[in-house]
Amino acid sequence: MNDRPVDARPVSTPAEVTSTTVSGRDGFARWTQMVGDAVMPVSTASEHADRFRGEATSLDLSRIEVSAFSFSPMSARRSAAQIRHTDPEQYFLLLVHGSPIALEQGRSSALLTAGDMALFDSSHPLACEFLDQGRMSRLTLVRLPRCSLPLSPNRVDSLLGTALPARTGSGALLTSYLAGLRESMEHGDTGELRRLGGIGFDISVAFLASRLDIQNALPAESRRRVLLARIDAFIDHHLPDPELGPRTIAAHHHISVRLLHTLFQERSESVGSLIRRLRLERSRSDLANPVLRHRKVGETAVRWGFRHPADFSRAFSRAYGMSPSDYRRLTAIGPAEVLAPAVMRCVRGSADALGSLPGPGIP
To answer: Can you name the residues that pair with 119 across neighbouring β-strands?
Structure first.
């Protein structure tokens, strides 16, 4: 058993992805040090110390930092003495993916299972047990500087150590956002990380404000960005629905169609163009997937919300320079490296072609 406090170091520079992997006899000591660096100084213990394994990936997005952890069962405690020695004054939103976590802070405690979320901070004593169920603990942490939140610290502190609903409303939006970030980190998609990074702080703060029922305390610009994030998530989830369009989107979010179009004016594409582009991208991905080779082109079109296969074929050809059937045959030839340059341009897609397409022709 190991039980040692550690000191904190500065976090990584903005927009930088950092990764850490530990294993073997010295792995647990290195993991304890890393937790002190990346999260806050804590004392740790583990029955798996001699064979401890852990992986961590962190993304610094300037206003927030998001970290994905996977590690052997252990416990972590933060004492009043450690707080007096080093307090980075940070809040942390915790999303559980793997084994249950028993969290205690202040006068509150919670047993968190996969899909649950909770809030803790660096300024109060903390006890955290990552329960041993024969598998790795997996979680995502969102770091929020205490001084940056446009919310009363006393109000936010009332949420410490409690389970926060994460399957509906703003909680579902936040978990979906974190899943997108985690996937982009794993695939090294820097462009998508930049896009997602701009909204992370607003979504996290909106989630806390919703739990406190003080959404109107948020700045108007933050509320606008969160509304756009909700709209994006709604569109992404309902792409297979042929009825998806400005009217259904506006009605679901209790805004006018005119306001919806106004919100999209600062973007490079309209609501209808966004829907069509996403549907074409999902269809293209399915056509290139060998597991889905049995599915007919028309079935793929209907799967992603196109009313008529003929309309899909015309839209696909205009966007990518070849028919869906030709694209499927060419991507079946072999690895992307052996495809001709013209085909590679099709695989990547043409932004200019997509931008020139009209909207999806839906109400």
So the answer is: 93, 160
Tell whether the model's pLDDT for residue 10 goes beyond 50: no
Domain assignment present for residue 256? The answer is no
Distance between CA atoms of residues 159 and 120, nearest Å: 8
Q: What domain range is 295 assigned to?
A: 267-356
Q: Which residues pair with 146 in a beta bridge?
A: none
In a domain, 8, yes or no: no
> How many beta carbons lie within 10 A of that of residue 336, not counting itself?
12
User: Cα–Cα distances in Å, from 133 out to 98, 128, 279, 283?
Assistant: 9, 15, 41, 40
- What percentage of the chain exceeds 70 in pLDDT? 83
Is residue 38 located within the same domain as residue 187? yes
Give the C-alpha separation, 261 to 58, whole Å: 36
Residue 3: what pLDDT?
38
List of residues 6+ apart from 66 with CB closer than 8 A: 58, 59, 140, 141, 142, 143, 178, 181, 182, 200
Report which of residues 223 and 286 the model is more confident about: 286
Q: CB-hemisphere CA count at 13 Å for 160?
A: 22
